[in-house]
Write a structure and sequence with these properties.
heterodimer, A: 422 residues, alpha/beta, Nucleotidyltransferase, domain 5, 2 domains, eight-stranded mixed β-sheet, six-stranded mixed β-sheet, 17 helices, B: 223 residues, Trna Endonuclease, Chain: A, domain 1, 42% helix, 17% strand, elongated
Chain lengths: 422, 223
């Protein structure tokens, strides 16, 4: 098998928390995207009979066609990557991953007789335990037994893919997803011993947003996670300094006041005199230790706790700057300045905007982190937010598969290389 | 003014509840009887002789009616006489039971079965037997013909299923093809550069994230 064949048949799979991005190198700049979820079909349902469905799980764009009563959704709809990690014995979640993988590969498998399988580069969270790699390889083998779709496969951590997509060989990648945040220094290779994980991500900010909505009288809407997320993305702000921002908001309520109209409905959400709480949302992602959050914890809002999943500790309350410093300080002294000189923020959790007129109190994620690191004595820092964060992991996978030679075989000691499957 | 139900209708309604439907009626006065109702459930036939009040005005008419009912036992599987409720006491039920004749009483409010008829197998005349044999033979032929038709229909149905399967497969294949055509146009597959070579090379259309990417060189040296 030639390098040329491999370069033409590289296939990227990004198992994201919300979306599953996939496709071959020939797609160009952007992959195909479907929601990272699967629906366990009621075999006796009219739709499954009408559609002649002989599978247990439906994934991809057909999922909405099969949805039944609302009360069944939670039980039947599985989001396998919700927290970045799938439990070893979570049979349903692994079934969904298998179906998503098959769905992706079959969508692009050419009927050309010369096709001998794709060179698949999959990407998992940096904190994925070894059994996730083993299970994924097992899934690839099982798919191949039914139909030859994969020539060889490899799995790379998402932060490495992000660094590759952004063409930066030495950096710290901070990847913040729905369930957690991973901080991974990279210097040609991911420095696995220096990885720090936080047990909070976009989901934690959603929880706080829901509490705020309850406080201002929208308790009924606060139950709908999708809506809460939309409100958070529309109204949430990241303060330059929280105390200063709250004081400004209380003195100038009309400048900070903003309402959100739920698309295609008559519902408008207005925080009114509580508009100062907009600043709490962003601050909570970066620094949940501020005393103002204590009142929410005291009223029953779950506090992000320290947990151990697999071999990794996920810190609940460590602030973002402290986590980055802890991670970098696990690397060699010589490397540390280079790492601080390029910090890449990736993931939807860093997309805070600054509305016009609030530039003095609200900031973007890169400015906030630079300030927080400066307060802890770290100077000469360059922080940037990844462009098109949605596709960067897939792009990194494509570059990785394109460049890594076919004779570089998979080894568990280094967690890299191609595992031949056909 | 609403029409009053006749005794025939009242008695017929009683048996209809039991699955016996009217197959014939005679409203002309017969010997000792005001009217006759023929009922059947498809297997047996029951004759109901209905005696109206005027029958009871004549002393011998009741006896005539009973004798007439006795005669009917040869022709029908069951025989019943229906009398107005007020003359119930004029009839000895035990006698009717002994002869297997049923008794129904009726008034304007409805009918009530007092003695059920004894259902017996009717002796058929040789002509009837012959007719029945003919009918049976005819029906057997009909069944054979129907079975033949059924298997022909099933064969057609199978052919349709197979054609539908083929169409569905074709439809899925076409949907996939259309889906692919709707995807963003793939990158033109010109000669892809050697990974160990420097970028960019003129005239090559690689995705922007592959162009000038130092990782290509770094990764291509993995060994």
């Amino acid at each position: 098998m030639s390098e040329e064949y491999k370069r033409e048949h590289v296939f990227g799979l990004d198992y994201g928390t919300s979306d599953f991005k996939y496709g071959p190198i020939t797609l160009g700049e952007e992959p195909e995207v479907v929601e990272s979820r699967g629906y366990f079909v009621e075999r006796e349902s009219i739709m499954s009979k009408l559609m002649n469905v002989d599978r247990e799980v439906v994934v991809g764009k057909d999922v909405p066609l099969f949805l039944e009563a609302r009360e069944n959704l939670a039980e039947r709809m599985i989001y396998p990557m919700r927290n970045g990690i799938i439990e070893k014995d979570d049979v349903k979640a692994w079934r969904v991953v298998k179906e998503l993988t098959r769905y992706a590969l079959e969508a692009f498998a050419p009927s050309d007789p010369e096709f001998q399988g794709f060179y698949v580069v999959a990407s998992l969270s940096m904190v994925s335990p070894r059994y996730m790699y083993e299970n994924l390889f097992k899934i690839f083998r099982e798919i191949n037994e039914e139909k030859l779709l994969i020539k060889a496969a490899t799995i790379i951590p998402q932060p490495l893919a992000v660094a590759i997509a952004h063409k930066i060989p030495t950096c710290v990648v901070v990847e913040s997803g729905h369930g957690n945040t991973q901080i991974c220094p990279i210097s040609m290779y991911p420095i696995r011993n220096a990885v720090i994980a936080l047990n909070r991500g976009g989901g934690a900010a959603n929880t706080l947003m829901a509490e705020i909505l309850k406080d201002v009288g929208y308790g009924d809407l606060a139950k709908e996670e999708g809506l809460v997320r939309m409100v958070k993305e529309s109204l949430g702000l990241l303060p330059r300094d929280l105390d200063e921002a709250i004081r400004y908001a209380k003195e100038n309520p009309e400048k900070v006041r903003e309402s959100f109209r739920v698309p295609r409905t008559r519902i408008t959400i207005d925080l009114g005199e509580n508009s100062w709480t907009r600043f709490l949302i962003g601050e909570y992602v970066f620094n949940p230790t501020h005393e103002i959050f204590q009142s929410y914890f005291a009223r029953g809002m779950p506090k992000p706790s320290d947990v151990k999943i697999g071999d990794t500790y996920f810190y609940g309350m460590m602030d973002m700057a402290e986590a980055i410093i802890s991670s970098v300080e696990r690397c060699s002294i010589e490397l540390q300045p280079h790492l601080y000189s390029k910090i890449l923020l990736s993931g939807g959790n860093f997309g805070w905007s600054v509305p016009s007129g609030l530039e003095n109190v609200a900031v973007t994620s890169d400015t906030k982190l630079k300030m927080m690191l400066g307060e802890k004595g770290i100077e000469d820092v360059e922080v940037s937010i990844t462009s098109e964060p949605r596709f960067s992991v897939w792009r990194g996978c494509i570059v990785y598969g394109y460049a890594v030679p076919i004779d570089y075989e998979w080894r568990w000691e280094r967690m890299e290389g191609w595992l031949n499957l056909a | 003014m609403p029409r009053r139900s006749s005794p025939l209708d009242i008695v017929a309604a009683l048996y209809e509840e039991e699955g016996l439907y009217e197959v014939g009626r005679s409203e002309e006065a017969l010997l000792g009887t005001s009217a006759r109702l023929l009922l059947s459930d498809g297997k047996i036939e029951i004759a109901v002789n209905i005696l109206e009040e005027d029958v009871f005005t004549s002393r011998g008419a009741l006896h005539d009616a009973l004798l007439e009912a006795e005669k009917l036992l040869e022709r029908y599987e069951g025989v019943v006489i229906a009398i107005p409720r007020r003359y119930h006491r004029a009839i000895d039920e035990s006698v009717l039971m002994k002869h297997g004749i049923g008794l129904v009483i009726y008034d304007n409010m409805g009918a009530e079965e007092i003695v059920p008829p004894r259902i017996r197998e009717r002796k058929r005349s040789p002509t009837e037997v012959s007719d029945l044999e003919k009918i049976t033979q005819h029906r057997s032929e009909e069944i054979v013909e129907l079975k033949r038709e059924l298997s022909r229909v099933l064969r057609i149905l199978e052919e349709f299923e197979a054609r539908l399967d083929r169409l569905e497969k074709e439809q899925r294949r076409l949907s996939l093809k259309i889906g692919r055509l709707e995807l963003p146009k793939p990158v033109e597959k010109t000669q892809l550069p050697e990974t160990t070579m420097e970028y960019p090379r003129e005239g090559e259309k690689l995705p922007s994230f592959l162009q000038d990417n130092p990782w290509v060189k770094i990764l291509s040296r993995r060994e």
